[in-house]
Amino acid sequence: MIAQSSVKVAAAERPPGYPVELELKLDGLAVRPVVPQDAGRLAGEFAAADAETLRMRFFVPAPHLTSHDFERLTTVDYLRRLAITAWDDDQPVAIARYEPAGETTAEVAFVVKPAYRNRGIGRRLIEILARSAANAGYEELSALYLAENTAAAAALAAAGFTRHAADGSIVEVRRDLRPPRP
Ligand SMILES: CC(C)(COP(=O)(O)OP(=O)(O)OC[C@H]1O[C@@H](n2cnc3c(N)ncnc32)[C@H](O)[C@@H]1OP(=O)(O)O)[C@@H](O)C(=O)NCCC(=O)NCCS
Known about the structure:
Blueprint: E1 24-26, E2 29-33, H1 39-48, H2 51-58, H3 67-74, E3 82-88, E4 91-100, E5 105-112, H4 121-135, E6 140-146, H5 150-158, E7 162-167, E8 170-176
Parallel strand pairs: 5-6
Antiparallel strand pairs: 1-2, 2-3, 3-4, 4-5, 6-8, 7-8
Bound molecules: coenzyme A (COA).
């Protein structure tokens, strides 16, 4: 049985390396890093999500994730791998993450619940991830999305990503994290 989580993570339940400074307020929402106790909740959100949201996030019509996948997605080291969640009271409404995609590149992915879209939540979660990734030593962020995904294209462009490559139906965008040269 996987423990159910909520927006509050008691100090005694924080995993090693949990970045307390990423417990933030975003408009009326509470943002915090993911914790392993979120696995069951994430599985529930995945099961309840609409098919189009899942296809846009995972690029296949009916993605199948196992309990092991949800454990992996919620167990991070907060440096090379990081995920942050946004909550409206006790309801999770968004999750954004990065994973290593090379020595100096991290790949981001994000989902915002439909009722919360188009208010800058996705863009600002990516901004938080970008700061953390730079602090962790990454030099670049990448992101992949389906070519038809105009929302992801717009949100990532607003977050400073530019087109890097396109392979069939998948577009790759990137954002440099290094400070500009003087
Ligand atoms: C992609 C996604 C995360 C964007 O989240 P969001 O919180 O709605 O995005 P934001 O509100 O931060 O949008 C940022 C910018 O993109 C624009 N934008 C967002 N959705 C848009 C849409 N459908 N059409 C046009 N522009 C859009 C916003 O207007 C905003 O522009 P601004 O900063 O100039 O005002 C969300 O649509 C989603 O969860 N989609 C399903 C999963 C997915 O596609 N993930 C991406 C692949 S990993």
